Amino acid sequence: MEPVGPGLYELKRMFVAPDARGTGVSTALVAESERLARSGGGVRLRLETGVRQPAAMRLYERAGYRRVPNFPPYEADPESVCYEKELG
């Protein structure tokens, strides 16, 4: 996760080992990323995933992320899906 603008953080990479999937680890990682962004002054957190990762898309949607237009450098990539969440 890194700051990319005033109050805006981007979750760059998140990976959970196959044997840990379905255990709640990914949900905890997303929640901790949000907490860290807030503690750094973040008010929004955004991320990019791929259309071939439906489990990741479900995870983010369950966590309250909404789909947004693809942001740079993903705007021309039809395989990319971008999400954002207000951290309020």
UniProtKB/TrEMBL annotation:
InterPro entries: Acyl_CoA_acyltransferase, GNAT_dom, NAT_camello-type. Gene3D superfamilies: 3.40.630.30. Keywords: Transferase. GO terms for molecular function: N-acetyltransferase activity. PROSITE patterns: GNAT (PS51186). Residues 1-88 form the N-acetyltransferase domain. PANTHER family: GNAT FAMILY N-ACETYLTRANSFERASE, LD18367P. This is GNAT family N-acetyltransferase.
